[in-house]
Amino acid sequence: MNDPNILKIIALISIFIALLLSFFLLTVKTNHKLSNRLLVGFIMFCSFDIIGLFIIQYQAVYLFSKTFTFLIFPSFFLYVQSICRINFKLSLNNLLHTIPFIIYNLVLISYYVITFYSGDNSIIDFLNKLIWVFGVILLKLQALFYIIAVIYTLRKHKKIYLENYTEGSIAIYKLLSQITIILVITFPITVSKELVSHTPLYDSFKWLSIVLIILALAMFCLFILKALYNSELFRNVDFNIQTANQITQESKVKIENIADQNLIIEQLLQYMKEQEPYLNPTLTLMELSSQLDMPSHKLSIIINKHIGQHFFDFVNHYRIAKAKTYLQDFMNNKLTIQQVFYDVGFNSKSSFNTAFKKHTGLTPTEFKNKFL
Fold first, then answer.
1. Span 245-371: which CATH code?
2. CA dihedral 307, 311, 313, 319 (to 10 degrees)
């Protein structure tokens, strides 16, 4: 089997999985259809880029298919925004993201019109260089800009996740971070591919193309696996929530009496011990405050400022303590690690292992073996 066949087979698999994932996202029942549609747009634009491998010999069609690469990163950025903000809506201002796409198409159309009707070589050469500048330099600068914007958005709101959500609720944040890492990895590879495409190193160009398609395939598979393991994954998270520092600075809540503060903490700890709300894998600070009949901003101050833990770590502390009792109990030593982490409120083994080792210094298996 020669290299071009390997490339096309991997490309066909990637396109098939992309179509399958898009069908799922468009048909799944959800209250947040806009986010799913933006994600479908991102997946389809990636697929158009892959389809270019099959039409590269038809220069005109190939160049027009490549124009959709100008929409890959803007669509992913808008998808991140739609996840980050519950009240996110598309507006006319969002059309600004399509300006490079529109300009590139106008340049292409001008190139073919002048080539067909005029044949002025000086203008054609100029437009040809302009197409290269747009298709290589501007496209890479655009990609870099949106990658930085996505990373900034995720880092900016990480504290909100930790202060208000637990493991089950931040799966989408982790997925966005993983996809961003894949995009960061692809960026220098695409730059290298463009550089070698203008040199005699054509074999390197083919192998770099294979690597890029494999990364695209990995990204599509990651989406599907996450969707299979977490049916509630594709939903929004309220990034309009304020952090504990913001609440304190705006003086929305004051707990001046130390006795009152200690009483609230005692009630909270007692409720966590007796009612075990942490067993709910998607528990949020808002839900816990509702159960306690306490304003969420006051609960946020108590946990993050006075107890000194993020809500994420506060809840995981109880989950790990519960898991330790299961693993230490001789009567429960036949329980699998999977049964334990589901019983205590985690929804993935990797997150359970990470949290367990953070709190105990041992993996769950090492801890269990220690007490057998």
1. 1.10.10.60
2. 110
pLDDT on residue 74:
94
Pick the CATH number of 3-229 from 3.10.620.30, 1.10.287.3510, 3.10.290.10, 1.20.1070.10: 1.20.1070.10
d(CA 102, CA 142): 14
- Please tell me the distance from the alpha carbon of residue 291 to that of residue 288, in angstroms, as a whole number: 5
SS3 211: helix
84-88, 149-153, 188-192, 258-262: the lowest-pLDDT one: 258-262
Are 4 and 206 in contact by the 8 Å Cβ rule? The answer is: yes
Least confident of 69-73, 237-241, 312-316, 344-348: 237-241
Q: Cβ(321)–Cβ(269) under 8 Å? A: no
Contact (Cβ atoms closer than 8 angstroms) between residue 66 and residue 138: no
pTM for this predicted structure: 0.71
Tokens 């590879």 — which residue? Answer: 189
